[in-house]
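A reminder before we start the practical. When you read a complex entry, don't treat the lines as separate problems. The point of joint prediction is that each chain is placed relative to the others, so the output describes one connected object in space. Small molecules and nucleic acid strands, if listed, are placed in the same frame. In the example below there are three entries. Take a minute to note the order of the lines before looking further.
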Amino acid sequence: MDREFAYSYNDYVKYGNGYKDMNPISKLTISVCLGIASCIVHRWQFGVALCIIGTLAAIYTRIFKKYIKSLLVIAVPLLLLTSCIRQLQYAHLEGNQPIFKILGWQWYDQPFIASMDIAWYIIGFSSVLLVYFMNTEMKDLMLALENRGVTHVASYIMLSSIQSIIDMKKSADTILESQKARGIETDGNIIVRMKAFFPTLGPILLSAMSGTEEKAIAMDARAFSHEGGHTYLRVLRPIPWWEYILDAIAILVLVGSIVYQVMKTVGAL
Amino acid sequence: MIEIKNASFKYPNGFTALENINLTIKEGEKVAIVGQNGAGKTTCVKMMNGLNRPFEGDVIIDGINTKEVTVATVARIVGYVFQNPDEQIFNSTARKEIEFMPRYYKLSEKEVKERVDYAVEICDIAKYMDTNPYEIPYPIRKFVAIAAVIASRPKYIVLDEPTAGQDLHGTEVLGNMVDRLTKDGITVITITHDMEFAVRNFDRVIAMAHKNIICDGTAQDVFWNEKVVTDAKIKKPAIGELAKRLEMDGKILFCDELVKRL
Amino acid sequence: MAFIELKNVSYKYPYTKDFALHDLSCSFEKGKFYGIIGENGGGKTTLCNLIRGLIPHFYLGKLTGECLIEGKDIREWDTAELSSKIGYVFQNPFTQISGIKSTVFEEVAIGLENLGVPKDEMIERVIDVCNQLDIGHLIKNNPNELSGGQRQRVAFASIIAMDTDTLVIDEPTSQLDPEGTENVFKIINTLKHSNKTIILVEHKIDLIAEFCDEILVMENGTVAFSGPAHEVLTKRELLEHKASIPEVARFGLAMEDAGKPLERVPVTLDEAYKLIKERGR
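Here is the predicted structure of the whole assembly.
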């Protein structure tokens, strides 16, 4: 047995990376506050800045490749779509200055900036959330929530649902295979495939459901409903002072963005 | 005839599960396949109905190469019953489940009824016909899955671990099923971990180990070959083990043989 | 006094016509190893559910008669309290993994977390159990990606870690291959030497013959036979009651029929071998 591994549970949960080791709730607070601020400010400059922060965090946590793939999937269609739509929508806006032509299609400055504002505030928000979810284990988040008073029942439901989705995907493959094995045609045109696919839904759901009762019994045998003191094998690091400061800054940015927006709306800016 | 010729099989992840297998099963044979998990038993039988297509070599079923037709086509000839019935059953009652394939083949009501009755009788599940399969006890649910495949009338039927979880009665029903199906012209091939079952009900026993067939012959050939027993990690039936400890010759595996000799 | 005592217990699951248990009386003493055999549908699992308190607390339905655990009626027990007294392992290896832990080590600790065992003690106990059950090499693995046999061993470990006095084990090997089965047998063997009360439901009769002190044969929701293992397993009537007897006991009975009986009917291979050797061929 790897005793070193066993005794590593004596320590706090540790990943050896500044970002990953932050408390899941503080990280979430920061990400969400900045993200919402980005929505409220609604300026491409803010979105780009947020995206740069997210990207730096992705590089720091060594998930850049995975992160950039997902981000591009969001960003590229979004940029193309919003800019085209805005160009069509605001083509005749007063004071439009032409900027360039694509295949004879004249683009103007105001709609272009408007589209960048929309696209980038979403990209900025997505960027920080992607980094957050790619770096944060669900079980750590639930643990942090349990420390704040969420019951272990709620936490169990959340975590086991995630696992059961993974399991369902696995069983879907086997069930489709068994349909083939019985002589149901699954290769061919879309109608043949659909015909083969629908019967598989039943067993997937049923097997997921029939498992719940046994799972409840198994958890009961593990003293799940025992009252009076629950201890944890995995314990999160106590939140250091600087995490509170980062949280506070994020909240200030959010408040600031609200103030900025309100003042702009009433015409003070 | 099922012919597996120099067949090798690799999973998409590159794992080789079978290496250069050769196997011929003639109509009317009763074949049991034994061996430890990971030896390639399931991979091998899944080649027989086209679910697994060999990476190298060929599998020919009654003259049809499984590589050239869809799985469903082969499955009409070779029926395969999964080890876990829950991966197979999808109808709301046992009856609907068993009727499903005959109806899929658009048979007449009379034919559907004939086939269903036949399957139900063999599997001894008459009293569960209108029950939701998920309310039927697991060992009996396995019989519902078997009945559903019997009702589709394949020429060959492959059972994957039918004995797992069965009690004495269930094992008896299975034993009788093997005889009855064989008598009615359906060739039975089964994977089993129940060695007593293999010895009692099958003429031909195939032991698999290390991605290959290591012994193919009678129960005596397999269970009285110490190397095969060790390599396939199978357990010699109790009577055989007793006869071996008593240093008796004659490759005894059955109770009455041993009684006669003592 | 018997640790578990059932008197005239009848039970019917909700929405069913037939009684799953029918006027059942039996008792279990501390520290003994009990085997429960009999045909499927005979009430073996229902009996386990009752002793574990799942009946009447989890499965409603109609329960009559008395079921006493340590002298206290099952209806008055709190299931959470009972779970720290009676451990329960059942057949399906896939539903006994919590699905919320990402290493085997954490999975084994789950019951201890729920019981509120201090962390340093928890770690020591998990290490001990993993060593005892020979799953030390698996502690870093994801329990959701293990084979059936490995999962079943992990399920045993989670329950054994809780160190209950009694263990109810319902067909632990019925869904496992021979290797997985053998590993579970090894675990049961270590349990036999632990002074725990064990109630094992199992079809593999050779296992029952080897380990059990006492045997109950269940049929139609009640106990058809019970008594010391050797006595029950050599009963001729068992053959007619759809309960299997060990292959060597069958052989012993056949020898009697052939007019050349051994000194007694054997139930294990070793015993059969000795009896034949002693008698001479």
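Discuss with your neighbour: Residues 4-245 of chain C form a domain with the Rossmann fold fold (CATH 3.40.50.300). What might explain this?
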